[in-house]
Amino acid sequence: MNEIAPTHVTETAMPDVARVAECATSPDPGTEPALCARAPIGMLCELTHRCPLQCPYCSNPVELERANAELTTAEWQDVMRQAASLGVLQIHLSGGEPTARKDLEDIVRVAADVGLYTNLITAGVTLTRERLAKLVEVGLDHVQLSVQDVDPENADRIAAYKGGMAKKIQVAGWVKENGLPLTINCPIHRQNIHNVPRMIEFAVEMGAGRVEIAHVQYYAWALINRASLMPTREAFMTAAKQVEEAREKYKGVIVIDAIVPDYYAKFPKPCMGGWARGIVNITPSGRVLPCHAAESIKGLPFDNIKDRPLADIWLNGEAFQKYRGTSWMKEPCRSCPRKEIDYGGCRCQAFALTGDAANTDPACSLSPMHAQWQAVAEVESHTPNAPEFIYRRVGGATKKPEAHNAS
Amino acid sequence: MSEPTAPKPAPTRLIVTGETKLVMPRHNKLRHDAGRGRWIILAPERVFNPDDTAVEVLKRCDGQRSVSEIAEALSQEYQAPLDVVTTDILEMLQDLTDKGVLIKAP
Ligand code: SF4
Ligand code: SF4
After folding, report:
1. What is the structure's pLDDT at A2?
2. B98 vs A92, A108, A279, B34, CA distance in Å?
3. Strand order across the B46-50 sheet
4. Where does residue A171 fall: left (phi above 0), alpha (psi -120 to 50 degrees), or beta otherwise?
5. Which is it for strands A117-122 and A142-146: parallel, antiparallel or unpaired?
6. Could you give the C-alpha distances from A88 to A40, A49, A116, B101, in angstroms and in order?
7. If you average pLDDT over residues A243-251, what whole number do you get?
8. How buried is residue B2: exposed, middle or buried, by Cβ count under 10 Å (0-12/13-18/19+)?
9. Cβ atoms A345, A361 nearer than 8 A
10. CA of A64 to the centre of ligand 1 (A)
């Protein structure tokens, strides 16, 4: 990805959030580390874990938070005010499905009033034309619409939701008629990777200024479903080539951001642009996390926005301090020249696969676990029949896999 | 795949020349970030950090002035050779246009 524009303008990509667990593509939010270390530039707000879709790679935790635990309107509005005074620049309203909150307009209004750049991350299926117009009126800046596949039947099957595609086409049209910029987000995996070029074409047709070819990251639900989702290395290489070709073809027409699957990379991504460095995540019930998957690290204590100011949590919260910077690192990271580039990769992945979040992410070729970990991808991606999906729903992870047909 | 809409012309890349008049669409926001003491452009899923020169150029991209006019004004103001300024800002503006930060004035 091209991070630096010629000479005069540098660029910081936000981590692509919600749908797929994600990491910042450019680690440095600015020129003055002393200041930038102090405030996050982006805040991910998981407004709710409710969602009409059931994507088997959902980045929400396997233990979904219930509706009755969600922050109130006033509490979210207060979060917005606190974020702006702390120095947050952009907020990403996600979920679950953020439009499931009836008070979304009231939250966006306050966010826009305090000067935050507002990004709505939605699957679109429950949005109406009136509602979107209202959101734009109160200050919404950008819409990111997820597309499960360009083949409508396959999309329905992946999300366990019927008729999603037609609705998404409508929503894209409404976004454009309101003069808003549109991003199409395509989570990529074994069961739709063959359609990458068509997804990019689809985004161009929809008038999107940006498309994310976002390979699924294997945390949370995606980890449970890894054997159904992991593409082969060959399929991944083909898709990567197709993305390069499309970038040439559509230069100046659409920006294509590609998120590489860890399993096929040599070095890990700077997850979240570095732990507690540029991004803060708030769960539906108000837990403040350095990354949306952080709760998977057992024993790490998290503060709630109801008990402690955002700035204090960000600066001093135990979970934030624990893996901030580089002093917590062990070998091989500790003496590695890349440690300020990738910050040792993803803490959640390190924890999930090694039992200690301070270990090097096994995605790194220098990790002692790397070979073993890659072998898993090799084997799983080549199984002749992908196992049935375990769909994302409350209690779903403990149930038996479902039949492939959408409900 | 697209539904009821009449066939639209395929979007094409805008090539920036001296005559082009550029403007920042309303969803991109050039603003001063007081907390960090720098200028920023807020854009979809991106924050751009323009340096002082870029800020001077961007402030002049008002949809009225052409790239040549902007280059001339800056070359006089900063007493820099016009051809150097022109090459420099054309390259920058093409890149920002490719990234959707600027668009052709309607
Ligand atoms: S189920 Fe799908 S649409 Fe719903 S939050 Fe998860 S990834 Fe997004
Ligand atoms: S050893 Fe650690 S710091 Fe070095 S490349 Fe691997 S993950 Fe990054």
Report:
1. 29
2. 24, 29, 27, 28
3. A9-13, B46-50, B38-43, B29-33
4. alpha
5. parallel
6. 6, 23, 7, 21
7. 92
8. middle
9. yes
10. 12
* In contact, A116 and A88? CB cutoff 8 Å: yes
Q: Environment class of residue A102 by beta-carbon count within 10 Å: exposed (0-12), middle (13-18) or buried (19+)? A: exposed
**3-state class of A358 per DSSP?**
coil
Mutation target among B22, B28, B45, B99 for the A interface, most CBs of A within 10 A:
B45
User: Given this model, what pLDDT does residue A247 score?
Assistant: 92
What amino acid occupies position B45?
Answer: E
A394 token code pair: 């409350």
From the list A314, A407, A299, A322, the residue with the least C-alpha distance to A40 is A314
Q: Which two tokens stand for residue A294?
A: 């952080």
Instruction: For residue B104, list its beta bridge partners.
Output: B22
* Angle between helix A196-205 and helix A233-249 axes, rounded to 10 deg: 30
Give the pLDDT confidence of A59-72 residue by residue, as tens digits: 887 788 888 899 99
Tell me how far apart the alpha carbons of residues B36 and B19 are, in angstroms, rounded to a whole number: 35
The 8-class DSSP code of residue A125 comes to T
Answer for the pair B95, B12: CB distance below 8 angstroms, yes or no.
no
A157-166: burial string, b at 16+ Cβ within 10 Å, e else: bbbbbeebbe
Ligand 1 pocket list (CB less than 6 A): A 19, 51, 53-55, 58, 60, 95-97, 123, 146, 159, 392
Instruction: Specify the length of chain B in residues.
Output: 106
Rounded distance between C-alpha atoms, residue A25 and residue A124, angstroms = 26
Q: Report the separation in Å between the CA atom of B54 and the middle of ligand 2, taken as the mean of its atom positions.
A: 35
Terminal CA-to-CA distance of chain A, rounded, Å? 39
When pLDDT is cut at 50, 70 and 90, the band that residue A399 belongs to is low
A145 vs A378: CA distance, rounded Å:
31
Give the tokens for residue A88.
Answer: 């947050």
Per 3-state DSSP, chain B is made up of helix, strand and coil in percentages (nearest 5) of 40, 25, 40
Nearest bound ligand to the CA of residue A99: 1
Sheet strands (E) in A58-116: 90-94
User: pTM for the complete prediction?
Assistant: 0.86
CA distance A189 to A387: 14
Of A19, A34, A170, whose CA–CA distance to A95 is shortest? A19
Please tell me whether residue A235 adopts helix, strand or coil conformation: helix
